[in-house]
Amino acid sequence: MLFNTDKIGHGYLPTYLELAARIGTAGRVAELGVADGESLRLWQALFPHGLVVGVDNDGSRLWPAGTIRIVAGQGDPDLPGRIAVASADHPDPGRPGFDLIVDDASHRSDLTRAAFTNLWPLVRPGRWYVIEDWSHCDLMMGDLAAELVEHFRESRQSDVEEIRYRAGLIVIEKRP
After folding, report:
1. How is domain 6-174 classified at the architecture level of CATH?
2. What is the pLDDT of residues 36-70, one digit of tens each?
3. Tens-digit pLDDT profile for residues 85-127
């Protein structure tokens, strides 16, 4: 099945296929930034037995059937609770949290920082938080990338296992 998502054009698909292979077909994914819903369709194909949550501040965006619809801004302080409820309501309540959270929303460093700070606790141990397009948009996103590395390097209590930079992606893995 062909998906008309920019994840393919930007060259992100190999990274996501690698993560999906490690997660398995019952993965739980939340994506910030829905647009035309094509990325959500991709997640549904990669995780057919999982949970796909789409978050966007524009309620007129397209959520495919079978996905969870959350209308909220990425910096909304209520967003973590709303996403957590979606995870808790999933048929496998013994596995709260998410295997993958993808921020493909505003591409603004201030909102991306707020989203990461608020949503990182929802990432399950050994799983990932991905920031997309960090090198394409807001010039401050490069500063945010460097800030993340410095923050985790200095934090003795850090639960970050690894930070990988790939063309346009920051892939942050939580310690198992």
Report:
1. 3-Layer(aba) Sandwich (3.40)
2. 999 999 999 999 999 999 999 999 999 999 999 99
3. 888 766 665 667 899 999 999 887 788 888 998 999 999 999 9
Domains of the chain: which residue ranges?
A: 6-174
Which of the following is catalytic: 10, 49, 90, 107? 107
Burial 134-171 (b: 16+ CB within 10 A, else e): beeebeebeebbeebeeeeeeeeeeebeeeeeeebbbb
Predicted TM-score (pTM) of the model is 0.90
107 among known catalytic residues: yes
Nearest to 68 by CA among 17, 96, 34, 35: 34
